[in-house]
Amino acid sequence: MKKEKFIIVLMITGFMTFNSLADELTCAGDENSTCQWQYDENTHTLTITGTGAMMDYGPDGAVGSKKTEYWKERPWNDVATEVEHVVVSGLSSIGHRAFQGMTNLIDAQIDDTVTSIGRSSFQQNSSLQTLIIPKSVTQMYADVFGSVSLTANIYCSEEIKSSCVNAFTSKLTEEQINNMLKIYTTNGERYVFDGKEYKSLKDYRNNHEYLPKRIYTIDEANAVAGERNTFKIRYR
């Protein structure tokens, strides 16, 4: 009986390892950063969390065949072409070439903490459909969106529109860039998409619209109360 239990435990442990790959600290940009990554093989999602800067994979100006050599430095490179979804949370930057050449990547969720996006970080992502650049981003390197799918929707704030335009490859025409580039506006700390305000990109993705608190008028309160004898002044 003891032997049978031991075999079962081994099988369960092996299954868990097969469906989730993870590592710690190997993607941190410096000693003041932390960076953990995890890949879920069931959902094809690469999740990267931490604080501070992500590591750069190769220098800013690398060109030609050297780029693929730098890709190999990424701790998730073995699963790079399997990844369909990327989540970046808590970090202040996305490193050079972090997600370059991920040919099955469909979308990426980037946290509002990110202020810098490295060179070619989303280049050659031929399946990319949706990417929202947070308003927190103030620095974008060359070719961030180089050679992405012509059907991709890239969302940028008005404040960094010129940087977003420059982040596309020069091989694209102005018309192609205009078809892909979607501009959203901001209102203080809030995002504004199609006239609706959201406190964060997370709220936008969850369709949690920001509604300012206000006092209802007596007429509005009466309308809510209907034919009841009492009513409350409600806040929203």
Q: What is the CATH architecture term?
A: Alpha-Beta Horseshoe
Shape: globular
Q: Extract low-pLDDT stretches.
A: 1-18
Share of helix among residues?
Answer: 10-25%
Beta-strand content: 15-25%
Strand order of the largest sheet: 1-2-3-4-6-8-10-11-12-13
Q: Could you state the order of secondary-structure elements as H and E?
A: HEEEHEEEEEEEHHEEEHH
Q: What radius of gyration results from the CA coordinates? A: 23 Å
Structural class: alpha/beta
When the domains are counted, the total is: 1
How many H/I helices? Answer: 6
Instruction: Tell me the name of the CATH homologous superfamily.
Output: Ribonuclease Inhibitor
Mean pLDDT over the full residue set = 85
At CATH level 3, the topology is Leucine-rich repeat, LRR (right-handed beta-alpha superhelix)
Main sheet summary: 10 strands, mixed
Q: Roughly how many Å apart are the termini?
A: 61 Å
Count of β-strands: 13
Task: Kindly provide the name of the CATH class.
Answer: Alpha Beta
Which SSEs are present, and which pair or pack?
Elements: H1 2-19, E1 20-24, E2 34-40, E3 45-51, H2 66-71, E4 85-89, E5 93-94, E6 107-110, E7 116-117, E8 130-132, E9 139-140, E10 153-157, H3 161-166, H4 174-180, E11 181-187, E12 190-193, E13 196-198, H5 201-205, H6 218-225
Parallel strand pairs: 3-4, 4-6, 5-7, 6-8, 7-9, 8-10, 10-11
Antiparallel strand pairs: 1-2, 2-3, 11-12, 12-13
